[in-house]
Amino acid sequence: MQKVWAFVRGCLLLLGKGSKLYYAWLSALMVLIAIGVFAYANQLYNGLIVTAMRDQVSWGFYISNFTFTVGVAAAAILLVIPAYVYHWKPIKEIAILGELVAVSAMVVCLLFVTVDIGRPDRFWHLIPKIGILNFPQSLLAWDVVVLNTYLVLNFGIASYMLYSYYYRREPNMKYVFPLLMFSIPAAISIHTVTAFLYNGLAARPFWNASILAPRFLASAFCSGPAGMILMFQVVRKWTNIEIKDKAIFKIAELIAYAMFINLFLLGAELFKEYYSDTVHLAPVKYLYQGLDGHSDLVSFIWTATIFNLTAFFLFLIPQTRENYVTLNIGCVLMFIGVYIEKGMGLVIPGFVPDVLGDFYEYSPTGTEIMVSIGIWATGLLVFTLLMRIAVPIMNGDFHVGEDGVKPHIGDQLFLVRKRVAVEEEDLDSP
Amino acid sequence: MSDMEEHDERVFRLTRRKALKGLALGIGTMVLPAKDASASVWESFFQKHFRELGRLERQKILARLEKEYSAQYKKSVRVKDTPPPEGVLFGYALDLSRCVGCRRCVYGCVTENNQSRDPQIHWIKVLRLSKERGVDLEHSEQYYNPATVPQEGYFYMPVQCQQCENPPCTKVCPVQATWKETDGIVVVDYNWCIGCRYCMAACPYGARHFNWKKPGLPAGDMNPETHYLGNRPRPVGVVEKCTFCMQRTREPDGHYPACLEVCPVGARKFGNLLDPTSEIRNVIENKRVFILKEDLNTQPKFYYFYSV
Amino acid sequence: MFDMAEAARREFWLSPPKMESDESYMVPPPPFTEGIFPCSECHKEMRPNPKRRELKEEHTNIQLKNHAEKERWCLDCHDMNNRDKLRLVSGEQIDFTESYRLCGQCHGDKYRDWKTGIHGKRTGQWNGKKQYLLCAHCHNPHNPRFKELQPKPPPMRPENIR
Q1: Domains delineated in chain A
Q2: Which of A105, A281, A296, B210 could form a disulfide with A72 if both were Cys (CB 3.0 to 4.6 A apart)?
């Protein structure tokens, strides 16, 4: 227990150290978070009336972001599987980063749900025993369970491994391996359950399609890893960690397959809706063509479709996949594409036209956007802090000192532009 | 709640009262009002789920609410918790060949059930449908506003909570804040709802409404005869819905719902589905009846019919 | 021309009167034009004239419309000798509070539905005492077509709820 405490203290000490850039970055995030907190305070004071949500469209930007972020979190297993099932070394080296992405994404997820509910003061009603969790009836109860499990699981695995490395031991795989294996179905389940949350509602034909869960998974394996590739390059460039090209290109290849499945499933869905041409076509028409003069989402969804298609080809062709310019373009396109398709593009048409045929065109208010920016900034902050600890540990720059108590901090800077210089310095001190 | 538990609770309360008395003496009378108010806030914060309350706890809560509402609306407000009557399953029928779309029911409901005037909440939506298309919700119109109704070529379909036998809304609630009572009425515990609005996504009839803002209910317009699960004033951030006017219908001298009594054309019928001699059974057995979105297997107890 | 009975009828819809008696078909007072009943007040002095004609001096506001006006006139329903009563085809005299029997002579299907609560409006207790509206409360007997109503304001569009 003392060792754990020493580790935590060491981590806290480490978090306070860093380059000017590190502080600047943290401050920038704090400013964004402050804006979000301010906007949320306003929402708490006035009620959700400050959002654009109304009875007709009762979920909006928050839940859209939530849905998208669940996908990002689930994507961590795209690293875990090749790393620990196939023992592929280049990815195994960075699998822990995937878990930290998952942890940060989970934080974002849970925050988006929290800001969406009307009575956050009654959050304790969800806690089993103290409150009443309607399990297994409500899919939202399932979601509460699996999301929290996934968060604890990933945080637990990652911190145990980092803890072991800190004390210069190999983690005991006897404990870690089963947990890692469990994290695979857990990742699939968070996404499946979130899909089922929509899928199970017969009132909303746009969601009530059994293809929804597979589509969710396929698109999750596009957006999450695409974001990770971008993040890895940033991390690689600005910090001391090494991430092999091979690993990045492999992830990109997997994305291409996932995107193919995603597009195929989308096509299957569109075929069914358009060919059968039932009353259930209305929301699809609203989304892709506009309906009765209501067409706010049309330009967005076509942007998403074009982005996704372009990205798919960029990832499919080896030449463009292994060229960082085109690869990064592909990643950005895919991230945005899936963000639209699976965020607003999924949630809003579920409500338009509404169950009685009323049209209300929803677009988020300033408050909703500010709160969301604050939440994303919180996610980035969590990720940065986690990376601040993980990167030096993995590089061997942060471990327990000679006396076995005090931490040794080799990397005082973390975020720096001139990596080479730092490496030379490191060479000087053995 | 068993007698034993009730006894325990009383003992607990007695000792607590003693403790409070001591505390009050110590603090002095000056701070008492403030302490009272904050006590009320904490009591409502820690309030248990309605169905888990013992008899005494329930009485205490109703008394607290009555006190709060009476002070707020400056009249003597009653908050009942009348249970569902035995052997009764409420049903409603609406005659589409009579309804003229005048919306008297909409506003009758607002007045009776203390809906928020600003922001506006209506539990009843009247849809205008064209006779040519029939019941085609996608082409319905709620915002029609001609000088007079009915208009040539249209018929009208009011939609409110259908009190489903198989309600999709209660199933999805993550905290069981909404449920179906034995008389078939789907209710919400406004003090337990967390405001996630999953039930609104699940309802195929648009019958659930959210308090996006603190409801605006002028004291003069407030109906002081209320039910805990029905028309009592709602807090911000929770979902509400039609309860077939349970504050009227559940009483021993059960009155018809307000929407029925205000209907100028007598298109609305109400009664006990389990009573073979009731008006509602008569309608179902003798007229052409349909239920809305039958394919969803929600099994509404709200029947639309054609008397001619 | 302002029709008092019509106004009374409309007034009635908006605030149904409370129950008054314990009869099997409890009905509120028939919607007479104010001060017109009992009819005998005026008619007892007059000699009944059974000849079908257009009324020129009294009751000029009463126009038989949309109600088989070619076939019928006043004394088909109003009893000639006792103006405070209505008259069935059988010759039976009935009170205005029983006018449903008169209407039911032709509109048998509606009468049947009215008796079981399908047609027309009942107020009061769903499980007890009820008040039945007479046909005449909603349908002007001389012009029974339902009058058009001004609708209450439409709901606010969600865009405008702030």
Answers
A1: 17-400 (1.20.1630.10)
A2: A105
Tokens of A243: 């991430």
Is the peptide bond preceding residue A136 cis, with omega within 30 degrees of 0? yes
How crowded is residue A356: how many other Cβ atoms within 10 Å of its Cβ? 19
Q: Which domain holds residue C119?
A: 1-41+62-146
Residue B16 CB neighbour total at 10 angstroms: 10
Chain C: give the shortest CA distance to residue B106, in Å: 9
pLDDT at C10: 57
**Chain A within 8 Å of C156 (Cβ-Cβ)?**
no
Taking the CA of residue B239 and the nearest CA in chain C, the distance in Å comes to 16
Q: Do A338 and A222 meet the contact criterion of CB atoms below 8 Å apart? A: yes
CATH of domain B82-308: 3.30.70.20
Amino acid at B138: E
Nearest chain C residue to A361, by CA: C159
Residues of chain A with pLDDT under 70: 417-430
* Closest approach of A122 to chain B, Cα-based (Å): 6
Nearest Cα neighbor of A78 from A107, A106, A104, A98 is A98
The phi-psi region of residue A40 (left if phi > 0; otherwise alpha if psi is between -120 and 50; otherwise beta) is alpha
CA nearest to B173, candidates B155, B161, B187? B187
How many domains does the structure of chain C reveal?
Answer: 1
Closest residue to A202, CB basis, from B197, B204, B235: B204
Rounded to an integer, what distance in angstroms lies between the CA atom of residue B246 and that of residue A282? Answer: 36
A292, containing H or E segment: none
Residue C73 lies in a domain: yes
Which of B300, B173, B189 is closest to B240 using CA atoms?
Answer: B189
Percent of chain B with pLDDT over 70: 87
Q: What's the pLDDT tens digit per position in B204-250?
A: 999 999 999 999 999 999 999 999 999 999 999 999 999 999 999 99
Residues 251-270, chain B: which have Cβ within 8 Å of C?
253-256, 260-266, 269-270
A9-58 pLDDT per residue, tens: 999 999 998 999 999 999 999 999 999 999 999 999 999 999 999 999 99
Contact A356 B137 (CB under 8 A): yes
Q: What is the mean pLDDT of residues B99-114?
A: 97
pLDDT digits (tens, 9 = 90+) for B45-75: 889 999 999 999 999 999 999 999 999 999 9
Q: Chain C residue with minimal CA distance to A362?
A: C159
- Residue whose entry in the numeric block shows the structure tokens 């001298």: B253
**Distance separating alpha carbons of residues A18 and A414, to the nearest angstrom:** 5
Distance CA B106, CA B121 (A): 10
Query: pTM of this prediction?
Result: 0.89
Inspect the interface and report whether the beta carbons of C153 and B272 lie closer than 8 Å: no
Facing residue for A49 by CB, picked from C157, C159, C162:
C162
> A147: which 2 tokens?
């999301």
Q: Do A60 and A52 meet the contact criterion of CB atoms below 8 Å apart?
A: yes
Mapping DSSP to helix (H, G, I), strand (E, B) and coil, where does residue A42 land?
helix
With CA atoms as reference, the chain A residue closest to B239 would be: A118
A 10 A CB-CB count for A146 gives 22
- Give the gap in angstroms from C-alpha B191 to the nearest C-alpha of chain C: 24
Q: What is the pLDDT of residues A245-298, one digit of tens each?
A: 988 998 899 899 999 999 999 999 999 999 999 999 999 999 999 998 999 999
- Contact state of C158 with A49 under an 8 Å Cβ cutoff: no
Is residue C158, in this structure, part of any structural domain at all? no
Is-contact A219 A67, C-beta < 8 A?
Answer: no
In A99-138, the residues whose Cβ lies within 8 Å of chain B are: 113, 116-123, 125-126, 131-134, 137-138
Q: How far apart are alpha carbons A287 and A272 in whole angstroms?
A: 15
Q: A55 at the C interface (CB within 8 A)?
A: yes
